[in-house]
Design goal:
The protein is 38% helix and 11% strand. By secondary structure, the chain is of the alpha+beta class. It has one domain.
């Protein structure tokens, strides 16, 4: 399983449109209480197909919008969903949490912020993440994702391949996560309990490494 790093579309991929997966995709599954879902190949979260991104119409691999944003850092609306991801995501220095776990944390925060008993703890975590954006501003000159996109666009192919962005993470705005969570519904309800985040993250990691077996995203 590969982690995510801040990247941009270069060459032919810079103009390739990213498409939504078709509902008939064999890897999508329907539950009796919700829409068709597909599992993000990066963070492991199960999201409705309407929130999943695939490289092309025939692709069997999908990502949630958060994970897909790492390959199109700084683009305004790379997935054609009408969301300004360039302004709804800022760059932070968080080397102790890998990007996939960071995105899983964002999904967990979105659920916990809706629960009155967990909201205060979730807000504290969210504020700590936002504070780390200032490390990016002081260490790299900016916390704005478009600035990183512009800088990477000036690199030669060799320089781009050698770029060091291993400690940089995208921090998505609470407003964006609230909007996404409203579309996801209660499919991530287990993350509402902040005390279970570590356990659930570890079980999701095992699922992505070992495979789902007979389990299907619900």
């Amino acid at each position: 399983m590969k982690d995510l790093f801040l990247s941009i579309r270069r060459g032919p991929s810079a103009v390739a449109a990213m498409r939504r997966p078709k509902a008939s995709n064999p890897e999508a599954s329907a539950s009796s209480t919700g829409p068709l879902t597909v599992r993000c190949e990066s963070c492991g979260i199960a999201v409705p197909t309407a929130l999943a991104i695939s490289a092309d119409a025939e692709s069997k691999k999908h990502q949630c919008e958060l994970c897909a944003s790492y390959s199109t850092a700084g683009e305004k609306d790379s997935s054609n969903r009408g969301r300004d991801m360039a302004t709804q995501s800022l760059v932070a220095v968080v080397p102790e949490i890998c990007a996939t776990d960071m995105n899983l944390l964002h999904w967990a925060l979105a659920v916990a912020l809706e629960d009155p008993s967990e909201r205060e703890r979730a807000m504290q975590v969210s504020q700590r993440l936002q504070a780390r954006m200032y490390d990016a501003k002081h260490g790299y000159g900016s916390m704005r994702a478009p600035a990183y996109r512009e800088a990477m666009g000036f690199l030669s192919d060799g320089e781009y391949a050698m770029r060091d962005v291993t400690e940089l993470r995208l921090v998505f705005s609470p407003a964006l996560m609230q909007k996404l969570q409203a579309e996801v519904g209660q499919s991530h309800g287990e993350f509402m309990n902040c005390d279970r985040w570590t356990e659930l993250t570890q079980s999701t990691r095992r699922l992505m490494v070992d495979g789902p077996g007979d389990a299907e995203p619900k």
